[in-house]
């Protein structure tokens, strides 16, 4: 029996249709929306704003009757909804006890995945579950939107790949398609689930054009993953596909033909002139068979986790706190690596939320597989496809962390799994009249996320204009604009480090450093208090003070950087030069030796500078 053939006899409130439309719109727009000409963080802010505004609309318009019916039911789906609520509470508790409340609230600039964004995604997942459970037509519209978004994202990625001039790339960088997701890894991990969701969509559809769309989305998603050159997503698709194919009971010739066509397409692309980047990427895989920094990163992140396992360090605090836990061997092997996340969703949950976060995430995953098992009583094919989508998503994210888009699609998979299983709980449920305090709660939450969205847009648009001013050498205009932006800055949002560095870089090109020095130094000082990578902020401040001849404050800043990142070679190198300039030869040579050791012979200029200093000052005693 087809899952969309199962209908409820409950009336569908007109206002609640807006909540269903918001859920479908967020699923369609989030992977696609970018604004490179409007905002500085062009692949992050637009997506988060779509999620926030969609959630605000859904919260104000959804009917709570279905949700009440699900919670009162004795089905396993009740546990799914309650686990989502526990997840929201866990993120909130970890934020309250965070080592940096503002950063945990608003999130970092590279993914903006703080409390407000996570709450919006989780609440939207709850509302989506109720709307899809009540309305089978919304279910199929959602799958159409997902397939259509996948086709559009893949088309953009393929065009991006074809249009990029490989000669413009650094010699060490292979061409990898990122599409509208901003990074090849996020693009590929998003597509890993699209492959199997769209395969299920193709099965459900009764209209030929939409069936073709689903099949086309599967084909393009596989091409997009290949062009991204992302091993994790390829592994996810291979593992999930290997489990799925025997379950589909397809005629052998059919799936052999499909595999042959796909393999032939990739083979032709690989051997063609356009496949040079893919060949380079394969060479990178062979050389980097250990996966870059990940083995070191996971080990040190687990050590970090043990220090705050009850509630974690708070969402989005990893980049600020991890340098204190980075081991010497990791630092020497990859001295220039910047680690913004643990590159694993389970470790990320543990560091952010502690052991409860890991257990809740594992519970949600287990409930996803349990939901697929229940769905087999109504539609075996769709259940197997959604199980494969969940598997591909999980495998891929053992090597990367969630962003707003990939997290939203992880929860979307769970919603699509559980909504059909909850149809029986929605039979004859009545529209629910919310009490006054519940309406006020809805209004308050919607107002908070909308205000946050407006602040993000205003701040990010201002940063884009400031960037353009600095490129054109309009320094006073940029400084004045940055000051006007400050009242709009959301709590926890900081671009001070970027602004300080950009001011100095642009002014140095035009030989106008005195004009911006005070503003750059003031921004550098603020960055040490609220930047997401505080060790970098202290290092930048030490550089500024050193360049101004303020060696005392430069020394203090460099030592503060060492305190926050004790195994990073750069502050030791800088501090050695500060001591040298101060006439403190013994200390300069001692600290310089430490810099050479932590650099691990990766940067020849470090040893050359130390040897030159040794020849000038004599060997350290």
Map the helices and strands.
Blueprint: H1 16-29, H2 45-61, H3 64-72, H4 76-96, H5 101-106, H6 115-134, H7 136-163, H8 184-204, H9 208-228, H10 231-248, H11 252-271, H12 276-287, H13 294-305, H14 318-321, H15 328-333, H16 345-375, H17 380-396, H18 404-421, H19 436-471, H20 475-485, H21 496-509, H22 513-530, H23 534-547, H24 551-564, H25 569-581, H26 585-599, H27 604-617
**What structural class do the secondary elements suggest?**
mainly alpha
Order of helices and strands: HHHHHHHHHHHHHHHHHHHHHHHHHHH
Largest β sheet strand count, sense and barrel closure? none
- Fraction in helix: over 70%
Mean pLDDT: 89
Q: Please mark out the parts with pLDDT under 50 across 5 or more consecutive residues, or reply none.
A: none
State the distance separating the first and last CA atoms.
Answer: 82 Å
Oligomer description: single chain
Beta-strand share of residues: under 5%
- Rg value: 26 Å
Number of strand segments:
0
Shape summary:
globular
Number of helices: 27
């Amino acid at each position: 029996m087809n899952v969309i053939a199962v209908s409820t006899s409950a009336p569908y409130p007109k206002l609640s249709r807006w909540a269903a439309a918001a859920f479908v719109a967020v699923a369609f727009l989030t992977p696609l929306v970018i604004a490179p000409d409007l905002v500085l963080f062009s692949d992050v802010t637009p997506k988060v704003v779509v999620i926030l505004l969609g959630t605000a609309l859904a919260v104000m318009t959804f009917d709570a009757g279905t949700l009440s019916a699900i919670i009162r039911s004795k089905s396993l789906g009740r546990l799914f909804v309650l686990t989502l609520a526990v997840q929201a509470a866990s993120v909130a508790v970890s934020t309250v006890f965070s080592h940096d409340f503002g950063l945990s609230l608003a999130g970092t600039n590279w993914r903006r995945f703080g409390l407000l964004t996570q709450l919006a995604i989780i609440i939207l997942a709850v509302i989506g579950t109720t709307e899809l459970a009540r309305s089978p037509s919304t279910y199929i519209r959602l799958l159409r939107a997902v397939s259509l978004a996948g086709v559009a994202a893949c088309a953009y990625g393929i065009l991006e790949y074809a249009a990029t001039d490989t000669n413009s790339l650094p010699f060490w960088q292979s061409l990898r398609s990122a599409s509208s997701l901003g990074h090849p890894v996020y693009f590929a991990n998003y597509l890993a689930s699209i492959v199997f969701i769209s395969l299920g969509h193709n099965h459900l559809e009764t209209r030929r054009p939409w069936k073709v769309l689903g099949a086309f989305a599967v084909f393009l998603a596989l091409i997009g993953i290949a062009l991204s050159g992302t091993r994790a997503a390829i592994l996810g698709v291979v593992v999930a596909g290997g489990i799925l194919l025997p379950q589909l009971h397809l005629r052998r010739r059919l799936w052999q033909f499909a595999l042959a066509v796909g393999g032939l397409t990739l083979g032709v692309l690989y051997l063609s002139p356009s496949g040079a980047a893919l060949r380079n990427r394969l060479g990178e895989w062979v050389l980097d068979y250990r996966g870059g920094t990940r083995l070191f990163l996971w080990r040190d992140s687990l050590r970090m986790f043990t220090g705050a396992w009850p509630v974690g360090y708070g969402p989005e605090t990893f980049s600020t706190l991890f340098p204190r836990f980075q081991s010497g061997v990791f630092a020497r092997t990859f001295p220039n690596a910047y680690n913004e996340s643990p590159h694993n969703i389970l470790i990320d949950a543990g560091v952010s939320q502690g052991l409860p976060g890991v257990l809740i995430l594992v519970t949600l995953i287990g409930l996803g597989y349990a939901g697929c098992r229940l769905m087999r009583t109504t539609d075996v094919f769709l259940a197997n496809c959604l199980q494969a989508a969940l598997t591909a998503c999980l495998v891929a994210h053992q090597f990367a962390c969630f962003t707003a888009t990939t997290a939203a699609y992880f929860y979307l998979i769970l919603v699509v799994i559980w909504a059909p299983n909850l149809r029986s709980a929605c039979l004859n449920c009545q529209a629910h009249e919310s009490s006054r305090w519940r309406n006020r709660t809805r209004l308050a939450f919607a107002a908070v996320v909308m205000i946050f969205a407006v602040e993000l847009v205003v701040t990010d648009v201002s940063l884009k204009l400031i960037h353009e001013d600095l490129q054109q050498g309009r320094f006073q205009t940029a400084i004045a604009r940055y000051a006007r932006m400050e009242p709009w800055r959301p709590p926890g949002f900081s671009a001070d480090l970027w602004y300080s560095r950009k001011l100095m870089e642009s002014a140095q090109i035009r030989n106008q450093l005195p004009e911006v020095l005070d503003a750059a130094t003031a921004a550098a000082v603020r960055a040490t208090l609220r930047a997401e990578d505080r060790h970098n902020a202290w290092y930048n401040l030490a550089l500024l003070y050193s360049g101004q001849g303020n060696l005392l404050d430069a020394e203090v800043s460099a030592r503060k950087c060492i305190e926050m990142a004790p195994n990073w070679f750069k502050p030791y190198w800088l501090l050695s030069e500060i001591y040298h300039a101060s006439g403190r030869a013994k200390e300069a040579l001692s600290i310089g030796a430490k810099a050479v050791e932590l650099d691990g012979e990766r940067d020849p200029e470090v040893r050359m500078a130390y040897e030159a200093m040794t020849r000038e000052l004599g060997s350290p005693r």
